[in-house]
Automatic annotation (TrEMBL):
This is MYND-type domain-containing protein. SUPFAM superfamilies: Ankyrin repeat, HIT/MYND zinc finger-like. It comes from Macrosiphum euphorbiae (potato aphid). It comes from the Eukaryota. Its main location: other. Residues 1-30 are annotated as: Disordered. Residues 7-19 have a biased composition (Basic and acidic residues). One of its GO terms (cellular component) is cilium.
């Protein structure tokens, strides 16, 4: 959040006003900005370029629709995800500038690029987040510094007034969520201290070997979100307390904050996603049931415990189906030759 009167705050606000001064005006009779025009066609490349040039996602057209909403109206959910998840680089660079002369910046400048790429992820499945997490984030005190910056960014999004609340609340939770995962990896424990094991491997091992670990971890993540007076938090809680119809925390986060809607909304055919990390275009099948796919062997191993019961059920159903089909074929053949 910018601090009135501070040099860093002034720079951030000046940059914010300067960027986008020419790309946010309505370019047609319906007051659609260039970002609206790109969104209505689902052109993610042009949308990304316009956002980089300073296009504001909260600008509305004559019917009070933002570019992201226009993209969703036309079924381009991935495009809407790109727009809603965009963060100007200035908002990250802000934390690399010392607030006062002689003090250290909140974010080490050498981590700016990696940090920006990290927060711009749209697939925020925890397994994918851990896979993509730069190892340098866990070196020395980097993790705690980054966690602090993520919490500050979460707070800044919560207090933003000019943007659509649903978008700022989503980003606020996203930064809190990323901070929670990083803090879990950075927290010393017996597994990492004794064996000098990579914290990322320890976390992934817990997911693959401890039943319900991931769902409990994400449940706690939702509950610990600081800004409980938000529509997003209330919606998450409502999904968790619907009795038999309640959704697992992972599904809730991927649906409301991640890119699950983007993956399923643009095609009548459900895209093939990795059962472990939710990445699209997974190609490696489960060797037993052949019904579930993964990115690679690592994802298969991580998901093995969670998939074990379902795998048996799928194989049983396939076996019963084949048996039923064979019986039906046999009965048809016997009927043809006059045997009932």
């Amino acid at each position: 959040m910018s601090h009135p009167g501070s040099r860093r705050g002034d720079r951030l606000e000046q940059a914010d006003h300067a960027r986008g001064s020419k790309v946010n005006y309505g370019s047609d009779d319906n007051q659609n900005s260039p970002l609206h025009m790109a969104a209505v066609k689902g052109n993610t490349e042009i949308c990304s370029l316009l956002l980089t040039l300073g296009a504001k996602r909260y600008v509305t057209n004559y019917i009070d629709r933002t570019a992201a909403q226009v993209a969703e109206d036309n079924g381009y959910f991935h495009c809407a995800t790109i727009i809603n998840n965009y963060v100007p680089k200035e908002e990250v660079r802000y934390y690399t500038i010392p607030e006062y002369n002689g003090c250290e910046p909140k974010l080490p400048p050498e981590l700016e690029g990696l940090f920006y790429k990290f927060i711009m992820m749209t697939n925020i499945h925890p397994v994918k987040v851990v896979f993509e997490l730069p190892s340098v984030f866990l070196v020395n005190e980097n993790a705690l510094k980054i966690v602090k910056v993520l919490h500050l960014m979460s707070k800044r999004q919560f207090y933003k007034k000019e943007e659509c609340k649903s978008t700022t609340e989503m980003l606020s939770f996203k930064f809190h969520y990323l901070a929670t995962i990083l803090f879990e990896l950075a927290e010393p424990n017996d597994d990492t201290s004794k064996n000098q094991t990579d914290p990322k491997d320890v976390f992934l091992q817990k997911i693959s070997t401890i039943e319900h670990f991931l769902q409990k971890f994400l449940h706690d993540c939702i509950v610990k979100f600081s800004y409980k007076d938000t529509a997003l938090f209330r919606q998450m809680v409502s999904y968790m307390v619907q009795g038999m119809d309640s959704l697992p925390p992972l599904d809730i986060i991927l649906l409301l904050v991640g890119n699950k809607r983007a993956q399923s909304g643009e095609s009548t055919n459900e895209p093939v996603t990795c059962a472990a990390c939710d990445e699209i275009n997974a190609s490696k099948k489960c060797p037993k049931c052949k019904a579930v796919k993964y990115c690679n062997r690592a994802c298969l191993q991580i998901h093995s415990l969670m998939h074990k019961k379902k795998c048996k059920q799928i194989r049983r159903e396939i076996k019963d189906l084949k048996s039923s089909e064979e019986t039906s074929v046999l009965a048809k053949c016997l009927s043809i030759i006059g045997i009932k």
